[in-house]
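Listing 4. Sequential folding, example run.
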Amino acid sequence: KYALIDEKGKIKIIGFETIRGDWSYIAKEVQNHVFELIMKDVDVKAAVSYVNDIIKKIIRKEIPVEKMIIQKQLRKEIHDYDSIGPHVTAAQRMRDIGMFVGPGSVIQYGIEEGKGPLRERSRLPSESKSYDSEYYVTNQIIPAVEKIFEVLGCSKDVFLSQEQKSL
C-alpha cells in the first residue's frame, strides 16, 4: 500500500480502500480527502478534525444513505458460498426480485441498524432507509484512515470522541 504525489501534483493511491470495491462511498471519500489534506497541505490537525466531523455527521445521520452503500463482487454462485456474508444475502434478495445475479456481479448494499449478524441487516440500496452509524464509524471510517494516521504518530483514539462512545 502506498500513496504518492506525482510530478503534476496528482495523488496516486495503490492498495488502499479508495481503490477497492468493498468499501462504502463515504469511507473512500474520507480516505481520499485525508490523503489530500496530509500530502498537499501537510495539515494533520485539519485531517483529524475533518474525520471527527464526518464521524459526528454519521452519528447524527446527516450523511445521505446513498454514501453508505458498499459494493462487493460475487466470486462464485450464491449457493456455493459456505459463509453467507451481507453481499450474498443482498444477492439472494436481488435474485428473489427477478434480477440476474451470478459470479462477477457487483452487489450493492447498506447495513441498517438492528441486532444480529450483518447479513441479516444488509439491504439493497432501494430498500435502505437508514444505516447503522456504529457499524460505519467502527468498520468503515476509522479503518480507512487509521493506518494513515499511525504513520504520522496518531492513534485511532483521536477519533473516539465522547459523542461516539455514547453509541
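-- end of first protein; second protein begins --
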Amino acid sequence: LKSKNELHVFHGSITQQLNQISETELELKSKKDSRFEIENELSMLSDLAIAFGRGGVQALLIEAAIPRLEDETNVLLSRMTDGRMVLQLHTQRERRSSKADDPIETLEVTISDEIGTRPYEMFSGGERFRVDLALRIALSKLLAWRSGAQLPTLFIDEGFGTQDAEGRDKIVDVIKAIEDQFQRILVITHMEEIQEAFPVRIEVSRKLGSGSTFVIT
C-alpha cells in the first residue's frame, strides 16, 4: 500500500492534470469560436467579392441600365433619321474558342438600317455623329436620372460638318425638342446656318495681339 504522502502527491498530480485539461478545453473552445467567426467573415467577404465583382452588382446595374439607354437613344436617333436607324448595345459575346463556355464581357454597338445590321464602325462619319449625339444625350439623361439630380447643361461641340443640309436640320430639330429637359444647351459651331437656328448666340472673335472678344446677340 502506498503511504499517505504518496497518495497526496498522486492526488495533486492528477488534480493538476485535470486543471490543465480544463484549461486546454477552454482554449480549444476559444479557438473553435475564433475559427467559426473567421469562417463566417471569410464567407461574407467571398460573397462581397462576388457581389462587387465583374458579374455582380455592377453587372446587374449595367444590365438594368442598358434597355433604358437603348430606348432613350433610339427615340432621338429615330427623329434624326426618320426612323431609319435603330441602335442596339451588346454586353456579352460568345468566345471564338469552344473550350470556354462563359461569354466575354464587352460593350459593342450595332445599328440596323434599311440595308441590315452592322457594327458601328461600318457606318459613315455623318451617321456615326448622329449615333454619338443620340447616345451622349441619352447617357447624360440616364446618369442624371440615376443620381436623382437635374442635368443643367448640355454641350454639343461641332460635328455638324459631317451632315448634309437635311441631316443638320433634323439634328437642330432634336436639340430644340429636348431644350425643356435642360437649363441650357450650348452648341459650339463655326457654321453660320447652325448659328442662325438659335435665338441666343455668343459670338467669339479672335484679334491678333489682343486676345479674344465675345458678343451676345
